[in-house]
Design brief:
Elements lengths: L7 E9 L2 E5 L5 E6 L11 E7 L2 E7 L5 E5 L4 E6 L3 E7 L6 H14 L2 E7 L6 H13 L4 E3 L6 H12 L3 E5 L6 H8 L3 H12 L10 E4 L7 E4 L21 H4 L19 H7 L5 H15 L4
Parallel strand pairs: 3-5, 8-9, 8-11, 9-10, 11-13
Antiparallel strand pairs: 1-2, 1-4, 2-3, 4-5, 6-7, 12-13
Helix pairs in contact: 1-8
Length: about 300
């Protein structure tokens, strides 16, 4: 046991700079501050903390099972730690970015986190086009669930709940896809879970820009972690030669290349390019691979 083993164990359910909301084993939440200047907690972390009046001090962060994050040239943005699965939410409208979808899936694959896609607003006329755009993801083994959180509340909830039960699910998707509708559909007291701690931090104005942990059930066994909509999704944490191995459709053909260090761009005898030509890898997925590869091999300064 570490020297912090005698301290209480808590769960980070929200963060604002150097202020964190930590939930104890009885479900009580309080504001905590990390000891010292360094602040590297994220939502989902288990921390050792000590009580100081009405607040607390975080003394140590327990080892993580995983960490979902993005990284660009300038900074790293951590989303959450110790999650069981990722739900990427897209919608028929607004039209989703396949590039952003692909990047989120690569980050999850790199972190060893299983993923499903949910396509919302399937009652709208553009659903056929959206399904066609998602077909490459179905083809490579990802489950894509068709939902309509407003038009078919009960049916959508019934489809999601068996997969969510007993798991800690991170929900990611751009603005307008229906994340808040999903949260309110599955968690009737969602506003209360936000409200209490926002008042404690006196920072209600930040409620739409902060990752938030919600308990779906009273037993606190099923959780949804809601993240703000993302626009940019850097993958600088990925090594260039690892990229095709983190894309299941490319990975299936990457060992059919003549050269062991094939970049799948211009080399002769490339199994990936042959699969693209044969229609086994979609042109859009191959284009996205090329764009991300170019970023990863560029100078890092």
């Amino acid at each position: 046991m570490s020297r912090f083993g005698n301290l209480d164990l808590g769960l980070v359910v929200r963060g604002h700079g150097r202020h964190y909301i930590v939930e104890d084993s009885e479900g009580k939440r309080r504001v905590c501050h990390p000891r010292g200047k360094k602040s590297d907690c994220v939502v989902g972390d288990l921390v050792r903390w000590a009580e100081t009046g009405d607040e607390g001090v975080i003394e140590a962060v327990e080892p993580r099972r995983n960490l979902l994050f993005r990284q660009d040239e300038w900074k790293t943005k951590s989303f959450a730690a110790n999650i069981d699965q990722l739900l990427v939410l897209v919608a028929v409208e607004p039209v989703f970015s396949e590039t952003q979808l692909a990047r989120a899936l690569i980050a999850a694959e790199s972190a060893g986190i299983s993923t499903r896609i949910a396509m919302n607003k399937t009652d709208l006329p553009g659903v056929a086009v959206a399904r066609t755009r998602l077909q490459p993801y179905r083809d490579m083994g990802l489950e894509v669930m068709d939902v309509a959180f407003k038009a078919d509340r009960e049916g959508s909830a019934a489809q999601l709940q068996p997969w969510l039960n007993g798991k800690r699910t991170f929900v990611m998707g751009p603005s307008g896809t229906g994340k808040s509708t999903l949260i309110n559909l599955l968690i009737p007291d969602a506003q209360a879970q936000i409200g209490d701690i926002s008042v404690a931090l006196n920072s209600g104005r930040h409620t739409t820009t902060t990752t938030q942990w919600y308990w779906v059930d009273e037993a606190r066994e099923t959780a949804l972690i809601d993240s703000p909509g993302f626009q940019e999704f850097g993958l600088k944490q990925i090594e260039a030669q690892q990229l095709p191995l983190l894309m299941p459709d490319l990975r299936a053909h990457a060992d059919h290349c003549r050269f062991y260090n094939c970049t799948h761009q211009h080399e002769p005898g490339c199994g990936v390019r042959e699969a693209v030509d044969a229609g086994q890898i979609s042109a859009s997925r191959y284009r996205i691979y090329g764009e991300i590869l170019a970023e990863l091999v560029s100078k890092r300064y």
